[in-house]
Amino acid sequence: MGNAIQWLRSLFYVGQVYLMMPVMAVFFVPMTLISRKWAWRATRTWCRYARWSASWMVGLRSEVRGEVPRGEVLIAAKHQSFLDIIILVSVLPRPKFIMKKELVRAPILGWFALRMGCVPVERGKRSQAIQQMMEGVASGRQLPGQLVIYPQGTRVPPGKYLPYKIGTALLYEQLGQDCVPVAVNVGLFWPKSGIMRRPGTAVVEFLPPIPPGRPREEFMAELERTIESNSERLMAEAGFEAGCEG
Questions:
Q1: pLDDT tops 90 at residue 59
Q2: How deeply is 29 buried, as exposed, middle or buried, from its count of CB atoms within 10 A (0-12, 13-18, 19+)?
């Protein structure tokens, strides 16, 4: 009975939070046409609403740990579900993401993402995708801000593993900026797919930055070790046991 009630609460939450997306978009579109800064304000407003409503509708609180980057940095984040995107956008001053090109065609979301300076990359051959990403980041159209990339390239549920892709290291070399690793446990509460949202405390943690200039192999090894070990720590704090996926 408890799971059924939580599922119904989750259904109501999911329905209303996505309904609020076009409602807020209609309100913010005129200002966003005038100035790009309203694209960040609009998305930040919706993301903060999503966090707030989750806390009392389904008992899913969210917490941000560590020092939130304010300047020009590369952010390499663990990606477990849409919730980690929501939390990042709710606190970063000017986030812009390396994102799948097909998301550009998504109503509302795609237009606001482009106004924020997100970099669309078409999935396909690895070399072509990397080239598109590098060109997009180097483009003069890209605005100052915090560039967010997911080193594994997709959402990875708790207890699963995918290798880290070289694209993060190439951006790290190209930009010459600090790289801030981000650990999460959000997939325990907001899954990759499905309706159920579980009560608890979802955490996104900004970790100490990796300074520019590290050799590629050393950088990738440190990045993966830092993100994975700290994500495992956060999940263990929430009661997740390695080898268990429920």
A1: yes
A2: middle
